[in-house]
Amino acid sequence: KLYQKSILMQNGKAMVSLELIKDQNYAVLFWAQYAEQNGNELVSPYYVTDNLYNVTLKTGDFLKSNDDKREAFSGRIYLSNVNASISEDIVLGRAVAQINIATTLPDPDDFYEVKLNKSKVVVSKAGSAFNVALQEASGEQTITFNDGVVPSGQLTVSGKSYEYAAMNYIFASGNVGVAFDIATEAHGTVTTEEIPEIPVQTNFRTNIVGNLLTTEAKYNVTLD
């Protein structure tokens, strides 16, 4: 039989108390997500089934890129033949994979200053659902993360710093394809073709970095 309990977490911590019948086996499943009050209802970025076997992302035109409120965590514990009091710690891991996109920018001292504005990201072959009991994602779907303000700060990879252009969370069931638009404040929008077969993994970050905005132009100048 299925039992449910919801707890408000404070600063990433909560105490969950359960009354368990002795001499029984249990699967205790944990799902933690952002939620905000909307009238009498708590609204979150995910559809959560009663048994936590099929958690899915809410998609549509409202789905914006670069929203860290879609971060979500999960965990599970199996209990066999319970006959004594239990007091345990459990650390929940991210149920999602994070995809970061970051770019180099022209040096304003040498050329012109480029400021990033918004970004749009399309991910193909993202997982369509997450099973908390199995701790894995399944299915495939294409997700469009519509224009959202770029994240602040920089991403450092192998000792080199890049300017954040996008950050999104997906369910990871295999390699994905990623395409993106990066809009600048005064220098137009750069659009990429899909980059295929990018590896992603639950509870890991995948970083796409490089010189994503500019291309080199060289001219041999001769006076005649």
Estimate the mean pLDDT confidence: 93
Which series of helices and strands comes N to C?
A: EEEEEEEEEEEEEEEEEE
Estimate the strand proportion: 35-45%
Query: What about the largest sheet?
Result: 5 strands, antiparallel
Given helix and strand content, the structural type is mainly beta
Poorly predicted regions are: none
Helix content: under 10%
What is the count of helical runs? 0
Rounded Rg = 22 Å
Shape: elongated
Number of strands: 18
N→C terminal distance = 89 Å
3D structure, described in words:
It is a single chain. With 224 residues, this protein is mainly beta. The protein is 0% helix and 44% strand. It has no helices and 18 strands. The chain has strands spanning 26-33, 36-38, 41-43, 46-47, 56-57, 72-79, 93-94, 97-103, 116-126, 129-131, 136-138, 141-149, 154-157, 160-170, 176-184, 189-191, 195-198, 205-210. Strands 9, 12, 15, 16 and 17 form a five-stranded antiparallel sheet that branches. The protein is elongated and about 95 Å long. The mean pLDDT is 93.
Quick overview:
With about 220 residues, the protein is an all-beta fold.
Write the layout of secondary structure elements.
Blueprint: E1 26-33, E2 36-38, E3 41-43, E4 46-47, E5 56-57, E6 72-79, E7 93-94, E8 97-103, E9 116-126, E10 129-131, E11 136-138, E12 141-149, E13 154-157, E14 160-170, E15 176-184, E16 189-191, E17 195-198, E18 205-210
Parallel strand pairs: 8-18
Antiparallel strand pairs: 1-6, 2-3, 4-5, 6-7, 8-14, 9-12, 9-15, 10-11, 13-14, 15-16, 15-17
What key attributes describe this structure?
224 residues, mainly beta, 5-stranded antiparallel sheet, 4-stranded mixed sheet, 0% helix, elongated
